[in-house]
Amino acid sequence: MGWNRPIHLATIAGIDVSLHPTWILVAVYEIYMRAGAYSSLVWNVLELLALFLIVTLHEFGHATACRQVGGRANRILLWPFGGIAFVDTPERPGATLWTLAAGPLVNVALAPILAVCASLATTPAMVAANPDAVVFLHNLVYINLGLLIFNLMPVYPLDGGQILRALLWYPLGRIRSLMAATVIGLAGVAGLFVLAALWHDLWLALISVFIVTYCWSGLKRAREQWKLARLPQHGEVHCPWCHSAPPAAELWRCAGCQQTMDPFSNAACPQCGVRGQRVSCPYCYHASPLSGWAGTGAAQSEAPVAAGSR
Questions:
Q1: Model's pTM, two decimal places?
Q2: Of the N and C termini of the chain, which has fewer Cβ atoms inside 10 Å?
Q3: What pairs with residue 293 in β-bridges?
């Protein structure tokens, strides 16, 4: 087993659930650091497994919602910073918003259930007989609430930051909403770094590094797409996935000779004459048969393969 190779745990409803090996190292560290929270380490292990279950349910919320709006979701990865549901959501603000909101809604649904369980267990007899169980249930309430609050922070790529982006999508459009959300996210993550320094919290600092990396990547992607959108467009052709008109420019590479070209203007590569069937959208990155691009004529159905935008 390599330390970068996920461990497959189960396949549920067609969704593969796997665990990144580094999660095990973090789990051992967390159990050691919280050794005094209970009278037995067994409760520490149970608490960690409960956290694992809550995060998994959260990610299944994302995956299920994605499927409901016509998207694809077939993989969930649990790793030290939480969970990742690999979703391929239709490029619509409503579909994106529901997919993103469904994860935190799982935590919202769990909140009263866990609170009632903790309340019912907090009796003099239970406290005297099994105080660890009472502490355990109360800790689950705080863990679920903490995950909900943290995830709803308007910092991209956390759920809150992506929900903000989906809401801004309506008035600003897809590209400008991503740019706005990432700029707000960079400002927000600066606050997280300050808190990490004030609290001397190494874990929060590591999470902040992860967030700022993805946030900066999102900003770069938004700027690249903004430049593409300012180019002349093939208005008569649209991506079958995101419905964007492709730029009228030589942004793709021929699969045969790697010469840059515009597959929507040439039936074959001007350099080598190679013909293909699939073209990658420079906005959503989906590769689709050229014949499937809305507005593409049958005469172009064998256009050169585009390996992707430059």
A1: 0.85
A2: N
A3: none
